[in-house]
Design goal:
Largest sheet: none
Shape: globular
CATH class of the largest domain: Mainly Alpha
Radius of gyration: 21 Å
Distance between the termini: 52 Å
Number of strands: 0
CATH topology of the largest domain: Growth Hormone, Chain: A
CATH superfamily of the largest domain: MFS general substrate transporter like domains
Number of helices: 19
Length: 414
């Protein structure tokens, strides 16, 4: 009877934590796409060059890197639940700070603050989920991020249309949502620290203690410096750098390109940016099923080609619907690339290197998300806004080439 009661308590705790984790990933995606929709109005308010959106993204990326690199230390000091509560509160403060920003410098500082909180949430949730949740839920948790990134532009666009293009109010609404999520994390913090859900990861028969011993052994066997030597790992770092630049760059610049260059209305542009993020989330749900039935390599190759074609359609702009179709294709085809490449890391480089390689990939993605959208904005300032979308085509072609190189290196190693 005691065992049955304990099992029921275990199941209840697991379900509650899983729901809160989905909520956390959803909230993590909300601010990510907000800048792309709000930027034309922020730019006008502070009298800024159009390319300075890249500086806002870069400031957030610096904060993200600072917190994600040190998340292990803070998890040991605060515990998972308290870390998530504090980090969500930090993001909320940053979003609310946008509402009160009186200069672009202050706006940048609040962007860095949001990155600081987001990095801890992202790293903390992923670290916890990788140990406790199944692979299926890991894929769907990342889909929840896409749902949040879809809802963000919808909320911002609704506020812009309904309240005389008040960009500050949109950030405040997101800030209040993050404040609510912070309270959820705070009141559930004791559940995250409980030992009763340690075995929730059911993808393997290996016990938790054995997994920890294996992880420790692998970590001790290969140092970070040694893990940077194999060419395939360096190529993967470049791949994630470019991929994140494409995903974030399209999401951040599409609204500005459509409204300021192509004359598409604020409402329509905001909706289709949301559709872009929505297909990113939908694609992760769909491909989460397909990867169990088809070759991951073939699926990724087709998706990368689809991204090239989608970027070409968006740049071509034969009609507004061509732009819309391009966004849909890029979002849907980009969906499985990040989670699948992460999951294939051990297979491609070996378990000895994978522990370090995944960390390198995540860091490269953050740096790419900071760098490439900024580069696109600089080229847009220099050569004209039309060149911003052209950079998406170039990045997508480079991404496909890097993937082919990774596959070839893996075949040669085998």
């Amino acid at each position: 009877m005691i065992q049955i009661l304990n099992r029921e308590k275990f199941v209840r705790t697991s379900v509650v934590l899983l729901f809160i984790a989905y909520l956390g990933f959803f909230s993590l995606g909300l601010p990510d796409a907000a800048h792309g929709v709000n930027w034309p109005f922020v730019k006008a308010s502070f009298s800024l060059p159009i390319g300075w959106l890249g500086l806002v993204i870069a400031a957030g990326g610096v904060g993200y890197l600072m917190s994600s690199f040190s998340v292990g230390y803070w998890m040991n000091r605060l515990g998972v639940g308290q870390l998530l509560a504090v980090s969500s509160a930090i993001v909320s403060c940053g979003l609310l700070g946008f509402y009160f920003s009186t200069s672009f410098l202050i706006f940048m500082l609040f962007s860095a603050l949001i990155g600081l909180g987001s990095g801890a949430i992202d790293a903390g949730l992923n670290t916890y989920a990788a140990e406790h949740f199944s692979t299926r839920h890991m894929n769907w948790l990342h889909a929840a991020f896409g749902v949040g990134a879809t809802a963000g532009p919808v909320i911002i666009t609704t506020v812009l249309v309904s309240f005389s293009q008040n960009w500050r109010l949109g950030y405040a609404v997101l800030g209040l949502i993050l404040l609510f999520v912070s309270l959820v994390f705070l009141f559930s913090r004791h559940l995250w620290e409980s030992d009763q859900h340690k075995a929730i990861n059911v993808d393997t028969n290996q016990s938790d203690s054995n997994k920890l011993d294996t992880t420790k052994a692998l970590t001790e066997r290969v140092t970070q410096r040694q893990a940077l030597k194999p060419p395939i790992i360096l190529t993967q770092i470049a791949f994630f750098f470019v991929y994140a630049g494409v995903e974030i760059g399209v999401g951040q610049w599409a609204f500005t390109v459509m409204t300021e260059l192509r004359g598409i209305s604020v409402a329509n542009a905001g909706i289709w940016v949301a559709v872009y993020w929505g297909f990113l989330a939908l694609g992760r749900i769909v491909f989460g099923v397909l990867v169990e039935r088809f070759s991951v390599e073939h699926l990724l190759r087709l998706c990368l080609l689809g991204m090239v074609f989608g970027a070409f359609l968006f740049t071509l702009n034969a009609t507004p619907y061509t732009s819309y179709l391009g966004l849909v294709l890029i979002g849907f085809c980009a969906a499985p690339i990040f989670p699948c490449m992460i999951s294939q890391t051990a297979k491609l480089v070996g378990k000895h290197y994978a522990i370090h390689a995944v960390g390198f990939q995540m860091s490269a993605g953050v740096i790419g998300a900071m760098t490439l959208p900024f580069l696109s904005g600089v080229l847009g300032d220099w050569l004209g806004l039309g060149f911003v979308s052209l950079t998406f085509v170039l990045y997508a072609i480079v991404l496909f080439g890097l993937f082919q190189w990774i596959v070839r290196q893996a075949a040669e190693s085998a």
